[in-house]
Design goal:
Layout lengths: L3 E4 L24 H8 L2 H8 L6 H10 L7 H20 L3 H12 L3 E6 L20 E4 H4 L6 H11 L6 E5 L5 H8 L2 E5 L7 H8 L4 E3 L4 H7 L4
Parallel strand pairs: 1-2, 1-4, 2-3, 4-5, 5-6
Helix pairs in contact: 3-4, 7-8
Length: 229
Amino acid sequence: MIKGVFFDLFFTLILPRYPADRKECDVLGMSVEEWERYAEEENLYRERALGMVKSESEILERITLQIPVHITPEQRAEVLSRREQRMRSAFLEVPELVLEVLNELRKSHIKIGLISNCDRIDIKFWDQSRLAGFFDDAVFSCEVGLLKPDEKIYRLALNRLGLRASECVFVGDGGSDELKGAKKAGMKTVFSEALLQKTKREQRELMASADVHIQQFDQLLRIVSHSVL
């Protein structure tokens, strides 16, 4: 019997899309691809996702210092403002189907947890989201100093809800090898493409660590209610 469901946050529950206008990269005259090459650089992201970079302004400073052009304090402030607005919009525009599924899980007395790799900007608006009220607990990497796929972050999440891995499911889009980490921790795994579709090659790779693959979010209810794992 499934007693707990843990979710990834980004690209599983919410999708922080770049808007048609007022993108943070527009301030610097860059494409989204160029901007993300700097903003998501592996070592820099790891530092802030582990909570080593504490403030929103310092996060932006660390990112923009890598970019080989002069960036004024005013530009940096505008980039931060637009990035925060993009994240805020993602938290306030949660797909209704996601909320309906979470509500059904709550009504079934299943505990719901979150395990997310994120920095301070990423989760600044968590408490303003309708999502927050459905969760029994949320483990954010920047607050606990652990990152998926480290088995310790899954163990921490399980312990905080008093659950055994064998009675829990982890649902995610597969980024950061999160499905592999959840399976190593002893959870069943659900690879979700409900919000973001992967390439055929990515699908094949991720399915190696997934017990079930869903493309519609409400398919999760049948999996949980009938223990189809």
